[in-house]
């Protein structure tokens, strides 16, 4: 069934449609043209980021026929390819929150997965540092939270101890997290794709889910070729090019998950959280032959993020970031097509230098160069209390076989396999 559906997606989608006038922004089963092809499938995962890939693999391993749809030309083109590639320990998140539970469990699964499959990764450890006496209590609070979350091996160090193992570091106190690490995200995603495909999963790229309607308490998905949505001048097509009728749907669309859920006609808008977007820029350290640090170095967390920290990649490159820049005015089509502004403004350097020099005073002026930027899919805005992951099933929205994933920001990479395990176990038992 999945294979025949893909053939329809790739070969039989009409090249154009006569657009009809509709009073509603959304589709209903009565407004879909009888000419629109309809196909039944077992399980659809929307979004081929690291979380979607993990979910697809897990479902396929459990015998599901899985179809993965993504609007991009390949996997992992949005948040999954624009993060720090850090394997988080699970220190920061409120005890018993989904972020804490899935980060700790996901870290265990991720290290095991990478070790067994020779995926490049390294458990290099992290130092969270207090650079002023006023931050020491916050550091102790972070340690207490990490212990409650079950993070192993946390050690509070005096500044002198921390500076012995990191001579370029300056701090008054530091918290060592030895289980933190880094991973080659692309290699990880490539492995997940390969395993999912080996278990029968089919991937359809350049394919956008533009909405849906509920029929007999199941969600019918409205599908369009990405190129047609791109040519629509910022407006959604009034007719889909195909309707998929799945038994199971995982909305893992990342940055566009809330916007997509709002286009599922039949779901109460009150259960869909508001989306907030926070851009974060990274700068790389140039003109250095020797890496100044052996560990990841993190300051005390700031509003909306974990502060401008030091990240090392597996090639030895040093990255600083990300900062937090709140953005708004993102329309639905832009979010569906990942048309975000990912440029790195060099003017941010004047903000980065003083922040970095608080813990790395020997950073030379002129040694930073623009790296890359990413967008965090957040559910809380500026000055608002951070919001947990939202994994939303039928008990919340009332639609059989639909799971919405909202706000899967950091530590989403680390938590990805635990999220997949949870979804497959809780929602797709039969």
Low-confidence stretches: 12-30
Distance between the termini: 19 Å
Radius of gyration, CA atoms, in whole angstroms: 22 Å
State the CATH class of the largest domain.
Alpha Beta
| Shape descriptor | globular
Strand content: 25-35%
CATH superfamily of the largest domain: FAD/NAD(P)-binding domain
**What's the helical proportion of residues?**
25-40%
**How many E strands?**
21
CATH topological fold name of the largest domain:
FAD/NAD(P)-binding domain
| Overall pLDDT score | 91
Q: How many individual domains?
A: 2
Helix vs. strand class: alpha/beta
Describe this structure in words.
α2 runs parallel beside α6 (185-198), α2 (50-61) packs parallel to α12 (412-426) and α3 (98-116) packs across α12 (412-426). The chain is 28% helix and 25% strand. The protein has two domains: 2-80 and 187-273 and 387-426, FAD/NAD(P)-binding domain; 123-181 and 275-378, D-Amino Acid Oxidase, subunit A, domain 2 (D-Amino Acid Oxidase, Chain A, domain 2). It is globular, with a radius of gyration of 22 Å. It has 430 residues and is an alpha/beta fold. It is built from twelve helices and 21 strands. The strands form four sheets. Strands 1, 2, 9, 10, 11, 12, 13, 20 and 21 form a nine-stranded mixed sheet that branches. Strands 14, 16, 17, 18 and 19 form a five-stranded antiparallel sheet that branches. The chain has a four-stranded mixed sheet with strand order 6-7-5-15.
